[in-house]
Structures are given as structure tokens and as C-alpha cells.
Design brief:
- This is Alpha-beta hydrolase superfamily lysophospholipase.
- Belongs to the AB hydrolase superfamily.
- The protein is built from 16 helices and 8 strands.
- An 8-stranded mixed beta sheet has the order 1-2-4-3-5-6-7-8, sandwiched between helices.
- Helix 15 links the parallel strand 7 and strand 8.
Length: about 400
């Protein structure tokens, strides 16, 4: 689906930003107007124009809040948070130290917190114990009754942040009576930016502390905990569910079997061989040519070096080798929903591999181009996707319609 840009990456990220309009995380006119001021494929104009739109919308929120107009303020802050996240997206040379990247990230986080403070349903920032530190999170509650409810643990992906969790899942969950516990793990959001902790392949070491925390909350029905993986999170949570058996249902959006394979397939075969053989100087020279004209590859390699704690693009590719479900998928016991996207530009063919490898009760749902749900993680089709996810979850949790 080409959306406002010819550049594949710009098109997808714009669709991603616009797709959250259904939960008031964007305004279609604002997205179209902003895109119209951006030079296709030019990352500097992308950052400049999304920042300008985010600043303008944040000012609306501040003015409305000062006048006591909380609904308008909440809506503006939520949109601004999404736009700041989008503005920061391509700043990947050194995000942890780049002043502009840090500023935009904090603005996205701060405006989101302002929006959550004005939400009609309770939201609690949480700190989940993890090793010798904590993972930041949000507990989204249907109400303040304290009653235990079915709860979804939201695990984001390669580049998403905690602040995306509301529009990506929690808003739809709350409408259906589900609580949501979302968090940033190693390699994600505040954990990579402020603690410097990169991704790790043994993701059960992350999810088990999250489940430990969740089952101690009175609002969580410990017999009805679902685990939801978003993008790369689809592989991470599947790996974790093979070892953490307190999970009652698993949702993979989208299914991913072999992350290393998806990276290798994005480059010429001979470059992949050079990386495997440690011929980094030659491999990086060719990779440099690829990244000079391919926004998707350029961004992915830079983001991977940062979030995986790699020394170079070649080192990043090698570090992805343990991220696979080979020999592991068969250990998943809980009912699993595998989502696939017909035109997935990142994980094409991977969901079917996951589905075939699973031996637990399972279902595969493919989002198609014809229904507008064919893009990675079904961007632009949040309502349809949530209908499918929660209808399946209702059936597995025996929740009446």
C-alpha cells in the first residue's frame, strides 16, 4: 500500500502514524498536511516537519488544559506524542547521545503522560523489577474497582516504545473489558535510551519477571493472562511462552520464526557470506552502498547496531543469529493466534513458518491487501485487527459476547 510517499519506508511510517487515528492518536488532515511538506526520502525534512506538527499540536493541548478543557487537551497530547515519536524515527546515528533525538523522545514520553493523566479510565505508571533494575511500564485498567480481569501483557518490537502501546492495543482492549500491562524491555524505549540495555535472545528472562509482577496485582486474573507480541515482539514472546507456562494465550502480530533470516534476505547473498566469514571490511563497503539509496535498509541497520549493542552493521547481523524459534516453537503449550500480513515488507513468509512449527492449539489469520490489512502489523487496519484478536481471545477465555 503506497501512502503519500514513493519511498517505501516513508510510506509505511506515515501509514503507521495515520493508522492510530481510530484511537485519537492522529488526525488524518494533520498527517496529510505534514506529509505534503516533506521531501520524499529526505530524513532531515521528515524530522523537521513532524516536529513542527507535534509542537503545534502540543501547544493546542497546553492551551486547552489551561482552560480546563480536558477532553481536547487529552486528544491533542495523544496526537503530539505519536507525532514526536514519528519525528524521531530516523535519528539513528547515535540516539542515546544525539540531543535532538533525546529531546523528541522525551517530548513523546511527556505528552503521552499528560494524555494518560486525563484519560477517563485509570492508568498507572509502574516499575517492574528486572535483575538489578526495573522496566518502565503502564498498567491500563478498565475501572477502579480493583476486580481481577483478563489481562494482556503488551510486548513491543524492534523500534516501538511504551508510549505506542495505548493506540496499538490498550485502547481496544479497555473497550472490551481487558486490562493491559505494557512495558519497555531491553533494547526498547527508555530501557535502551536511559539504561543502555540491548536486546537479548532469551526473552523468557524478561517475561517471567513481568508475569511475576502481574500475578501480584489484584486487578489481574492470573488464570487469564494473554501475551501479545508486536512486530519483533512476535518472536520474543513466542520464545518466552515456550518456557513461561503461566501464559494462558499467545498472540503474535506478526508471526516471526527466524529474525536472522529476514536480515540476511535483505542483502545480496555474497554480502551475507562475507559477514558470516568475518570479512567485515568488504561487507561494510557494499552495505554502505546499499544504505545510500535504500531508506529501509539504512534505518534498519542503524537501529539494529544501537538496539543490539553491536559494533557495526556486520556485528549486528551476526548478533541476530540466536533469534529463532527453531527447536523451540514445539514447546509452546498455550493456544496461539498467529497473525500474518499479505504484503509484509519485513517478515514475508515468516508467520506461516511459525504456524507450521507450532504443535499447540493454533489459528492463523492473514490480513489482506483487499481489506486494507496487508501491511506489516496491519498498519492502517487497527480496528479490524483488534476485532479479530479480541474475538479470538474472548473465545479462548470463555468470555460471553
Amino acid at each position: 500500500m503506497k501512502f503519500l510517499f514513493d519511498d517505501e519506508s516513508f510510506s509505511f511510517e506515515t501509514l503507521r502514524a495515520a493508522g492510530f487515528a481510530c484511537y485519537r492518536g492522529a488526525e488524518l488532515g494533520e498527517v496529510v498536511a505534514t506529509a505534503g511538506r516533506i521531501t520524499d526520502g529526505d530524513e532531515a525534512s521528515w524530522q523537521r516537519e513532524w516536529s513542527a506538527t507535534a509542537d503545534r499540536v502540543r501547544t493546542i493541548g497546553e492551551n486547552c488544559l489551561a482552560k480546563g478543557r480536558t477532553v481536547s487537551a487529552r486528544e491533542a497530547f495523544l496526537r503530539a506524542s505519536n507525532y514526536y515519536r514519528t519525528a524521531e524515527f530516523y535519528l539513528r546515528d547515535d540516539p542515546a547521545h544525539d540531543p535532538r533525538a533525546r529531546e523528541l523522545y522525551h517530548l513523546s514520553r511527556d505528552t503521552f503522560a499528560q494524555a494518560m493523566n486525563l484519560l477517563d479510565t485509570p492508568v498507572r505508571p509502574v516499575a517492574i523489577p528486572y535483575q538489578d533494575t526495573t522496566l518502565p511500564g503502564y498498567l491500563y485498567l478498565v475501572d477502579d474497582s480493583g476486580a481481577p480481569r483478563p489481562t494482556v501483557l503488551f510486548n513491543s518490537g524492534f523500534d516501538s516504545t511504551l508510549e505506542e502501546s495505548y493506540v496499538a492495543l490498550a485502547a481496544g482492549a479497555l473497550d472490551r473489558g481487558y486490562n493491559v500491562l505494557a512495558f519497555d524491555g531491553p533494547g526498547q524505549g527508555a530501557v535502551i535510551r536511559e539504561q543502555g540495555l540491548p536486546f537479548r535472545p532469551d526473552w523468557e528472562a524478561v517475561i517471567t519477571p513481568v508475569v511475576d509482577y502481574a500475578v501480584r496485582l489484584p486487578e489481574v486474573d492470573e488464570d487469564r493472562i494473554a501475551l501479545y507480541g508486536y512486530s519483533l515482539g512476535g518472536l520474543l514472546v513466542a520464545r518466552a511462552a515456550a518456557f513461561e507456562h503461566r501464559i494462558a494465550a499467545l498472540i503474535l502480530n506478526d508471526g516471526l520464526f527466524d529474525y536472522h533470516g529476514t536480515n540476511v534476505r535483505a542483502m545480496p547473498e555474497f554480502v551475507a557470506r562475507w559477514i558470516e566469514d568475518g570479512r567485515d571490511e568488504e561487507a561494510l563497503a557494499v552495505a554502505g552502498l546499499l544504505t545510500s539509496f535504500n531508506t529501509t535498509v539504512r534505518w534498519a541497520l542503524r537501529n539494529g547496531v544501537w538496539t543490539f549493542g553491536a559494533s557495526s552493521s556486520a556485528d549486528y547481523i551476526r548478533k541476530t543469529k540466536p533469534y529463532t524459534l527453531a527447536g523451540i516453537a514445539q514447546q509452546i503449550a498455550c493456544p496461539t493466534l498467529v497473525l500474518d500480513a499479505e504484503n509484509d515488507i519485513f517478515f514475508r513468509g515468516e508467520a506461516a513458518r511459525v504456524y507450521e512449527a507450532l504443535t499447540c492449539p493454533k489459528e492463523l489469520v492473514v490480513g489482506t491487501e483487499a481489506e486494507g490489512a496487508g501491511e506489516h502489523c496491519h498498519m492502517g487496519a487497527m480496528l479490524l485487527t483488534h476485532q479479530r484478536v479480541f474475538d479470538w481471545l474472548d473465545e479462548n477465555f470463555s468470555i460471553p459476547s
